[in-house]
Structures are given as structure tokens and as C-alpha cells.
Amino acid sequence: MPGAEGAVNGASADDGWAVSSIGTVGVVTVGLLGIFAAWKRARSLRPPEPMDMVGRVAVVTGANTGLGFATAQRLIARGATVVLSCRTQAKCQAAAARLGGAPSATCGPPLELQDLASVRRFATFFRARDEPVHILINNAGGMVSTHSAVSLAAADGTVADVEETFAANCVGPAALTLEMLPVLERSAQPGRTSRVVTVASKLEHNADLAAYLNDVSGRSNAGLAAKGQDGAAAGEYNTWTAYANSKQGNLHTTAALAAEGLVPHVTHSAVTPGMVNTELGRAFAWFSVTAPIRWLLLPSAHDGADATIYAATSVDIEGKTGLYFGKDRKTGVVGEVVPSTAARNPELTSKVWAVVQRLIQGQ
Question: In angstroms, how far apart are the furthest CA atoms of the chain?
């Protein structure tokens, strides 16, 4: 049957063309990915870090991964000694080993920013030692997928329930800063202030912090409502709003500390790393699935640390306080960033600072 044979031959030809096409597409795709990977690697190559931090000691929180690890790595490359702060000693020791170990990378006590007693123990460790700390980098932070409140015990024993993200990302770092101020003050050098750098985020533009202050536990979802985001019904807990609240809180507490000038030789600044490929979203199911996409599209943690390194080391901002830095995506240059209108509202700053101080110190 010639017709049948022709059909079979035609199918074979079509199949061969399809296989060939798929193979070609595969080769081209792999080739393009290889080129992109080479280009991305070339972009990440930088001249050696200047050795301008010799003799300086920095404490970096959340130093075992992501931006914290990259920040520690780059400070060490500039000659600094870095004390790593992590939630467990095991994580800290592993990170220190990856950074080359002592004397450049050492471990501080375990630090849990959602536990103010842990914060006080951590600072007491440094206050009891006759060793300097010139830079405190409040890098540690995170987000949770569902609502949770933690009990914070203030210095006077007062206990308050606080939404977990705000407790860890805002109240904890503010408490650590206050506790570390005596160490930073005594470590200041002639013509060279000590510095506090707090990692915030441009996502603070999405905050509803004024409403959240009405119920810091978050149980009423005040200031944490989804507002129709991500397809959620209004009134549901929204992870991104909670995160935005905590990051705008960082800007308010930085502004308050700078304005109060509690110690004269310590400056305070905040930074935004931009959208960076870190482990921030590891609590979510989509995190591992999106790893290849994040690697392709987002800057590395090493690049994301640019603003933090600038705020911690730049001689151009010596003695200046209350500033907010970020990197221009087009030029790659780090400079001052204008925060949201709410973040620049002095009345809201006063309210946030009053609430945070009450949570830290008590009634």
C-alpha cells in the first residue's frame, strides 16, 4: 500500500525533524545559559577590596548566610576583624570556618533577636571585655508565612506580645543597638566615629505602620491586612505587609537614634540592598522551586552588600548620621536614598520610637 508507506515515511521524517529541532533548541539554550553565566560572573568580578579596615572590629548579625555572610567576607577582605553573630554556635562556627577562622572571623554568643534577654546577654559579653567594637551591622532579619506573636520581656519585666516579624526585624535590632552603645562609644577613635548600620528595605514603601502600632501583636491584623494583595481576602495576615512594617520601623528607629544623639561619637545609618538572591524567603514552599530563576535574574548577596559596606567604611560620610543608602540599579553607584513619605514623617517616627522603647525598657 503505497499510501500507507508514504504516510509512515512522512511520519518518520516529521519525527526526525522534531527531534532535530528539540536538540537544536536545547543546544542553543545551554549555550545562551553558558554565555549568561559567564557574563554574570564577569560582572561580579571586582578589583581587590582596599585594605582600609585594618584594626577595626565589626559585629555582623545574621552572619552565617546571605547578605550577612557576604558582608563579613568583604569586611575581612578589607582587613577588619569580624565577630559573627548567629542564632546557634554551630551555625556560627561553620560560617567562621568558611571565612578562614580566627583571628579574622570569630564567634560571639548565640543571638536570638526575638528574645530580649538573649540580646542583653549578647551585649553584656562585649561590655565585660576590654576589646573594641567599632561597627555594629544589624543585618539579621526574616519573614514568616503565617501570623505569629512572640512574648517580649522588657528590662523591667513587663511582657508584651509582638508580631514575630516586627519583633525580630525591628525591636530586636533597636534593643541590640541601645545595649551596644557603651561599647561603640568607648571604641571610637580620634577623627573616626563608631558606626551602626541597619539593613532596611525599599519594600518599606508598602508598610501600614501607623495602623500596626494600634496592635503590635498583630492579632487584629491592624496594619497587616492583605488589602487584596496576592489574591488574599482583605483582613488576612499578609507576610509582605508585616515585613514592610518591620523595615520601615528600621528607618524610624535609625532616625530616632540619630536625632537623640545618645552618645556623641556613634553614627547611625540605614541601607537597602535592593532585590537580591538571598535566603530571605526560605520559609515558603516556592523558595526552592524558584532557585534557578532567582540565580538568573537577581544580583548575588555579594553585590547586594555594596550599600552596607559603603555605610560601614566610606570616609565620605565620616561623622554623618541619620542617612539612608542604596545602590542605583542603572549606574551601580551607592548613594543616599529617599525613603517613603511615611518613613520621613517625624510624628510617626516619634510614635514608633516610643512604642519600641516601651517594648525594650518597659513601662
Answer: 99
Q: Which secondary-structure segment (H or E) carries 295?
A: helix 291-297
The one catalytic residue among 212, 237, 243, 324: 243
Cell of 116: 530580649
pTM of the model: 0.83
pLDDT in tens, the chain (363 residues): 444 444 444 445 555 554 455 555 455 554 554 555 444 444 444 556 676 899 999 999 999 989 999 999 999 999 999 999 999 999 999 999 999 988 899 999 999 999 999 999 999 999 999 899 999 999 998 888 888 999 999 999 999 999 999 999 999 999 999 999 999 999 999 899 999 999 999 999 999 999 999 999 988 888 887 554 444 455 678 888 999 999 999 999 999 999 988 888 999 999 999 776 666 656 666 566 666 666 666 677 778 899 999 999 999 999 999 999 999 888 889 999 999 999 999 999 999 999 999 999 997
Is 243 among the residues known to form the active site? yes
| CA 182/CA 115 separation, integer angstroms | 21
